[in-house]
Amino acid sequence: MAEIFDDPPPVAAALPLILLLFFLSRWSGGLVARYGPKAPLIVGPLIAAGRLPLVRVAVRGGSYWTTFFPAFVVLGLGMAVSVAPLTTVVMSSVDQTRAGTASGINNAVSRVAGVLAVAILGIVMVGAFSHRLQRSLDSLDLAPRVLHQIQSSTIRLGGLEVPSDLDALTSSVLRAAIIRAFVFGFRLIMLLCAGLAVASATVAYRMIPSRAAT
């Protein structure tokens, strides 16, 4: 990442998302009582999906504060509007005697969904990166040994090292191709995530009553 952006994201790059969830959770929990569960569970994912135009400006040499930071703020706002109302809906949909079971199922589904998202989107990212990089490699006159070395390390994504025995011009061209492939895969993942957010808002619109019983 340090070679892709002028000032690479710090370790606490996602801190805006965490802080927004922390400070807005109490406010967003009251949205269910005021508007019912349907509106927050539609608006929240749509706000989260709105970060897509922001992350699409991520290019080589971009700044964290002008690319990722606004996207994290929008994502944090969308998640804050969604998470607390979702938990409220789940906990209020069962009898008080089964509240523990509902909480356990809600947490289990959340954890499993996170694991599946990392696994599946990771596979998609590596595939997109490899495909885009291969298109660039086809236009370069590289030795089979160099091609094999690069292709066997595509799982490293943007951290893929350029072979040290190449001349300066070829190394520069190859490094630029790696960066373009990484940005391409990153944008594709963001597009898929935005689509999933819109899909969740659609499910909430179709399946949740306008004013569910509290």
Describe this structure in words.
The structure is a single chain. This protein is mainly alpha-helical and 214 residues long. Helix content is 70%, strand content 2%. The chain has 8 helices and 2 strands. It has helices at residues 15-29, 31-35, 38-49, 52-55, 68-92, 99-138, 144-151, 168-207; strands spanning 5-7, 62-63. It has a two-stranded parallel ribbon with strand order 1-2. Helix 6 runs antiparallel to helix 8. The mean pLDDT is 82.
Average pLDDT level? 82
Q: How does the major sheet shape up?
A: 2 strands, parallel
Query: Structural class of the helix and strand makeup?
Result: mainly alpha
**Residue share in β-strands:** under 5%
SSE run: EHHHHEHHHH
Q: Any low-confidence stretches, pLDDT <50, length ≥5?
A: none
Shape: elongated
N/C terminus separation: 47 Å
Alpha-carbon Rg, integer = 21 Å
The portion of residues assigned to helices is 55-70%
Number of helices: 8
Q: Within the largest sheet, what's the order of strands?
A: 1-2
The tally of strands reads: 2
Give a nutshell description of this structure:
The chain is mainly alpha-helical.
